[in-house]
Amino acid sequence: MHLLYDGGIDYLGRKTIIFSACHLPNSNDFDYDFLLKYRESYVEEDYAVIFFSSPARHKPSWMWLLKAYRQLDHSFMKNLKALYVLHMSTSYQYVFNLANKIIGSKFNDKVSYLATLDELDKIIDLAHVRLPHEVVEYELALPHSLFAYHHHYYHDQSQHLHHRNNNHYHHSHHHHHYQVSQQKEGPKGHFVFGRNLEDLAKVEGITMSDQSDVYIPMVVRKLVEHIRSTGLQQEGIFRKSPSNADLSKARDDLDQDHHMQIEHLDVHTVASLLKMFLAGLPGPLISSEFAEARYKNKDAADLGQKLQQYYRDKPHHLALLQYLIYFLAQVSEHSDRNKMTAHNLAIVFSPCLIRSTVAFSDILTNPADAAVYLGQMKSHMVFIEFLIKEKDTVFNTIDDK
């Protein structure tokens, strides 16, 4: 059961939480107040919430919803940048609007009602989001949905393939979700975001014979140098977000012209663009399986050897990881001014750098599952923090090979 889980990074570089109403259990068997406790791990930085509101067999009562809204503290309200509500019925939207009035117009401005998954796909890449099969089935039944025509996706519920609406579904007995194929075609003319490193290297004229040289994407060098020049002393660098409009425009402009000059951009916009680029890579720089298996390893030299083996066939990925870690270490050296210690940087960057490469598993069915999941998040942060602090030993081991 997928009730509440990490949705990854949206196109504006923000963490997302997904809440699936279709998996809400009967309130007689489940303490809904548990949901309020889960938010505490997210309020330290900007994030967005995606609410799959339909279908829902069980729904929180009106009284519980109003109670939940009253309990939302300042840190939650301040760092919650957007609430995207998909497939909301008219009657329940009335409850939402009533609750929004209790909090005030500022919160109401953060709420967006979406009619289809295609609208959501413009906000976050659904290739990296696990979609409950109930939500997709509900979507496909809508007369105005174009989702079936725009995407190939897989449904894990049995061991055979079947066809519906000219799309393919893959089924398994253990997991119940759809995953949009990562081979879906992106917008033409986009040079930067959502492309793999090999494609970017070709765009920049780097050939396979050049792989002995260190390759760092031009856009990454440009963004990092801007931050080095103007942002190392900025308090909250990588934590403070620009306006959605400014960030979206900068992203679109840079995506159309990777030679674009960025000196005129605010440093917080540039910092957000760097996070967006990393989060948008089709594959993670580090798999969660690798990080979780080795985050307790405090032998930096041994970890360097393991990284060298891991990246044997991915030299561009290793070069980019090393470049980023050294840059983050430089940022942390100014933490007395910018407040971004190695630990704080690990909190911000671990979701951008570490993702799973295998099928998603069920999480957050109950508090015990939540503890396991939060433990995974912690292991990712510990891993990145260790790389930042022990960069010289880790990467010198690789360079010496």
UniProtKB/TrEMBL annotation:
GO terms for molecular function: GTPase activator activity. One of its GO terms (biological process) is small GTPase-mediated signal transduction. One of its GO terms (cellular component) is cytoplasm. Pfam families: CRAL_TRIO_2, RhoGAP. InterPro entries: CRAL-TRIO_dom (IPR001251), CRAL-TRIO_dom_sf (IPR036865), Rho_GTPase_activation_prot (IPR008936), RhoGAP_dom (IPR000198). Residues 195-395 form the Rho-GAP domain. This is Rho-GAP domain-containing protein. The lineage of its organism: Eukaryota, Fungi, Fungi incertae sedis, Mucoromycota, Mucoromycotina.
